[in-house]
Amino acid sequence: MGDARTTATITPVKARNAMGRACDLARRATGRVAPNPMVGCVIMRPPGEIVGEGWHDGPGRDHAEVMALKEAGDAARGATAFVTLEPCNHTGRTGPCADALIEAGIGEVVFAVADPNPIAAGGAERLRAAGVPVRAGLCEDEARDLNRAWLHAQKYKRPYVVGKTAMSLDGRIATAAGESQWITAPESRKAGHLLRRNADAIIVGANTVITDDPALTARIDGETSYPARVVLDSTARTPPGAKAYERNGAGNQALLATTPAAPARRLAAFREMGVEPLVLPADHDGRPDLNALLSALFERDIHSAMIEGGGELLGAFFDAGLIDELHLFIAPIVIGGGKPAFGGDGVRALADASRFHFRRAEIDGPDQHWIGQRKEAA
Fold first, then answer.
1. Which of the following is catalytic: 65, 108, 140, 308?
2. How far apart are CA 28 and CA 23, in angstroms?
3. Predicted confidence (pLDDT) per residue in 265-299, tens digit
4. How many Å separate Cα 248 from the centre of its chain?
5. Residue 79: is it exposed, middle or buried by C-beta count within 10 angstroms (0-12/13-18/19+)?
6. Fewer CB near the terminus (10 Å): N or C of the chain?
7. CA–CA gap between residue 97 and residue 89 (Å, rounded)
């Protein structure tokens, strides 16, 4: 049901504002909640007084509803809880949020998106059975966009894949001599680090590791975040001492996605460095099968993955139809020759080139930032 069905005592405008505020609260934990969804909660008393706010800040921490209830205290009794996701109905590291709302005497619950996870779903039924009115669908589009990666992973059992590249106007990511730092301006690089922070994992190819030796961390305003690192390397030829394989500040183990062609002695060297080899079936080109890779990442609670480079890897994901979102940072320069942003076979028919909805995002500096969302996922 849509936005018109809110509460009888809180106006539709104030109800939408409350849910919008809950979405803003949820975003505070961007990059910290995996494998959980981002959730925000606002508790409001009529005619529009906010008495409690909360958000889920990571696994093992209070859920959004519990944080908001603690802030509201006795004022929660008879109030309305606005939650971006259906309150959970299971006991994990924390108790069921549906029960917490019932025990606090909440008068009504309004949520934006139903929980698709069968383990946690059922909160709405539990609340209704206890006599608490429940309404669904308020600001649903905004809340779905907030958790688009998590919702996608729940539905398709594979991570939401984001492709990112920084290129020249003629689509080059490096000169013929291999020089690539830096094609885009500092403002674009900062936006790229924000994308890294939002991802559960960063995927790169062997050539990127050998050529650039990236650390694959997200560095923003003096703070460093540590997504999981995944290197696609068919024969385990990358050096085990590369920065991508180092144990990082979060203690995350790096993953080497390889094939049976990788020598056993090389895999042993990676294990000694604390790197987990994922020996995957090879595709027709002898590279790790991408569908098998994404299944393995999902099994490890990775719900969003960002392709950081290079052009051949990005092209392989594109050819396989496995990119859900694209971020193209385009600098106002022309390189000529050099290395293309997308390798692989590409499309044969122009009709197949329109698989994304594109929009131009605002960004400081001289570059353009285009965001494309796959039409099936939009």
1. 65
2. 9
3. 999 999 998 899 999 999 998 999 999 999 999 99
4. 20
5. buried
6. N
7. 6
